[in-house]
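Hi, here's the filled form for the chain we discussed.

Project: internal
Contact: R.S.
Residues: 127
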Amino acid sequence: MEKKVIATKDAPQAIGPYSQAILYGNLIFVSGQIPIDPKNGEIISGGIEEQTEQVLKNLEAILKTSNSSLKNVLKTTVFITDLNNFGKMNKVYENSFKENPPARSTVEVSRLPKEVLVEIEAIACIE
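And the returned structure, exactly as it came back:
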């Protein structure tokens, strides 16, 4: 099998030496996404709900480029700067994964890039 780099202008460009995603076989490994609006490169305004929504849009755009979708996500890791925001984040997250939600880990971290409140990475498959 060959490793293939996945990139789209519909999600934020990588801000370091990494790829938006890697396709290997029928698995897609999506790098952690933060709430950057890909149209202007800025962090979106608002709180944890708005940031989570943008992160999920970014994940969805990358998966679409990979011929996949959020319904094919197998595992996510959520990094959040304050677990007191977990309930608010979880309500937005739940809207994207209503049926057969993926496995998930959620970790509180002291800081995230650009001082955002949430980052999510994912592993998905292509049907």
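Let me know if anything looks off before we file it.
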